[in-house]
Amino acid sequence: MRPPIVVGGVVLWNLATIGWGLSNGFARLFICRMGGGIGGAALVADVYSLLADVVPAARLGWIVALFSAGSCVGVGIACLFGGMLMVMLRSVGARGVVLAPGTLFSADGIAAE
After folding, report:
1. What's the rounded Cα separation, in Å, for the pair 15 and 42?
2. 3-state SS string over 41-72?
């Protein structure tokens, strides 16, 4: 039951992130940020539980630490290269171009279920 919730969380998170990148008012930004928070909450809680079921107890701490560090590394890379991409494309809509592949990968996860 957990994999569909994880995939759904990733899809919601990606769609909300695209929406907040393209938003032009407070209400839309607020709704998209809420969607991103809900998607992230569904994703993280279920991944921890899924990892506890799949990974041996002796390695669980290392794997959870690696999963947790991934978000920090991802934010750093996104800030570095996302800013460079925004300067190159000179457009707020560039966020949608960057975030669209995540949604496509999520759709692939739904099709695999």
Report:
1. 14
2. HHHHHHHHHHHHHHCCHHHHHHHHHHHHHHHH
Measure CA 111 to chain center.
18
Helix (H, G, I), strand (E, B) or coil at 23: coil
The CA-based angle 25-27-28, given to 5 degrees, is: 70
Shortest CA distance to 81 belongs to which of 56, 73, 43?
73
Per residue in 65-110, pLDDT tens? 998 898 888 888 877 887 777 677 665 555 556 566 666 665 555 5
pTM over the 0.70 mark = no
> Cα 75 vs. chain centroid, distance in angstroms?
10
Amino acid at 41: A
Least confident of 16-20, 45-49, 69-73, 92-96: 92-96
